[in-house]
TrEMBL record:
Keyword Oxidoreductase appears in the UniProt entry: yes
Cross-referenced InterPro entries: FAD-oxidoreductase/Apoptosis, FAD/NAD-bd_sf, FAD/NAD-binding_dom, FAD/NAD-linked_Rdtase_dimer_sf, Reductase_C
Source organism per UniProt: Saccharopolyspora oryzae
Protein name: FAD-dependent oxidoreductase
Domain FAD/NAD(P)-binding as annotated: residue spans: 4-309
Keyword tags: FAD, Flavoprotein, Oxidoreductase
Residue ranges constituting the Reductase C-terminal domain according to the UniProt record: 332-402
Keyword Flavoprotein: yes
């Protein structure tokens, strides 16, 4: 083998490249990225950067070692010819590979009406350039910022804007913020937090249209309950779209849910046959996990991107007998409205929830989620130091509710997740046993 190509020059792509070199790969290495920037850290964009504590240019990812690679930045992958082993680029050129790693991640789900999305004042927040755009809008000192969607990104943006003194309205079609990710019980706590910090939170409503003035600037939003809201800025936080469109026609099992892979990160083709020269890692990958019934997991988690990239890199250059499975336990964190939120496992799979430490009313607690009689996940509000213990409960399939000090007599309650059959922008863990290329499924854009 002489050449490896990595499509996706962000966290997973960079860490995979570094790990290839660490394990002794000395062939040619090419990284392709659609952004002109070298790899940078995305989580701070909706937190420290938006608060002005860190500049966008200071979010560059630290390099573990020199990767000695050819960087093709600012040009997107446009197609994949697996027969010829060529990645086709948007500028018309091609890059040959012996083995390919797909690490193209996700992009923000856009506002579905193109003309409304083009209004001055309407934006998303995913990239470094998005952050700079939003900062320019906020520099105008808007009268009101509308956040469309109360998942983690929307809630973090709302928190930062309130801390900076802006009037904020959050419109969320679910019953509470974070309901898709953590369920309604925990979502009720998130709702109280937002309202206590001055957010005009409106749940159970959708933004039906955005209206501009004659100059093309956003001036108001129309909501499904018939109300009209004046706003100068609308941040669309409707979740993410996996970057797989460039793989159309490639014969890979790639679609809206990501690239389906085996536990060793090898991509499946549309017939369910595993490939041996195409791998996937990071937000774009879907892999089976024994802790979750071998259903496919799509994880939009920083730690998963690193761990999976290293497994993929190892397996790309290792014989069958030395290949490893990717068995990372999901884990993520968020900081909003003065509270640090951490979670392990797959909360969105939970049927019931029980508070095991602290109090929901005090916004300081730990809670465990149960699925079919076992602990499947946990979440902590300012209780992050305990998540390691809950991780061990999850990994040994401990019985639910867990027997912990102080939990005697505490009864689980329904976790109140929305119907999984309905579209949602909230979860950071998506579990599905369906093929992403199943043409019987019709995916339609939705509004919140």
């Amino acid at each position: 083998m002489t050449g490896i190509v990595i499509v996706g020059a962000s966290l997973a792509g960079l860490r995979a490249a570094e790990h290839l070199r660490e394990e002794g790969f000395d062939g040619s290495l090419t990284l392709i990225g659609d952004e002109p920037h070298e790899p940078y850290d995305r989580p701070p964009l909706s937190k420290q950067v938006l608060l002005g504590r860190v500049l966008p240019e200071d979010t560059a990812l630290p390099r573990r070692r020199e990767v000695d690679a050819e960087w093709r930045l600012g040009v997107a992958a446009a197609g994949l010819d697996r027969d010829r082993r060529r990645v086709q680029l948007a500028d018309g050129s091609e890059v040959a590979y012996d083995k390919l790693l797909i690490a193209t991640g996700v992009r923000s789900r856009p506002w579905p009406n193109d003309s409304e999305a083009a209004l001055d004042g309407v934006c998303v927040l995913r990239t470094s350039d998005d952050t700079r755009h939003l900062e320019r809008l906020l520099a105008r000192r808007p009268n009101r910022v509308l956040i469309i969607g109360a998942g983690f990104t929307g809630s973090e943006i709302a928190s930062a804007c309130r801390e900076r003194g802006f009037a904020v309205t959050v419109a969320e079609r679910g019953e509470t913020p974070l309901v898709g990710a953590l369920g309604g019980v925990v979502g009720d706590v998130a709702a109280r937090l937002q309202r206590e910090h001055g957010v005009d939170l409106r749940c159970g409503v959708m933004v039906t249209s955005l209206e501009g003035d004659p100059a093309g600037r956003l001036k108001r939003a129309h909501l499904s309950d018939g109300s009209v809201l004046d706003a100068d800025i609308a941040v669309v936080a409707l979740g993410a779209v996996r970057n797989t469109a460039w793989l159309d026609g490639s014969g890979l099992a790639a679609g809206p849910r990501g690239v389906a892979c085996d536990a060793g990160c090898r991509a499946f083709d549309v017939h369910g046959i595993v490939t041996d020269d195409v791998f996937a890692a990071g937000d774009v990958a879907r892999t089976p996990h024994p802790l979750f019934g071998y259903q496919f997991l799509s994880l939009e988690h920083w730690g998963n991107a690193v761990a999976q990239a290293e497994i993929a890199a190892h397996n790309m250059i290792s014989p069958d007998s030395r290949r490893l499975p990717h068995l990372w336990t999901p884990s993520f964190w968020s900081s909003q409205f003065g509270v640090n939120i951490k979670s392990v496992g797959a909360p969105s799979m939970g049927e019931e929830i029980v508070v095991t430490q602290g109090s929901l009313t005090d916004h300081s607690f730990a809670a465990a989620y149960g699925y079919q009689g076992r602990v499947i996940a946990a979440v902590g509000f300012d209780h992050g130091k305990w998540m390691g213990g809950y991780r061990r409960l999850i990994e040994r399939a401990a019985a639910f509710p867990p027997e912990l000090p102080g939990t005697r007599g505490v009864r689980p309650v329904p976790a109140r997740f929305p119907d999984p059959a309905l579209p949602s922008h909230g979860p950071t863990v998506t579990l599905t046993g369906h093929s992403p290329s199943d043409k019987r499924v019709v995916f339609t854009p939705s509004r919140a």
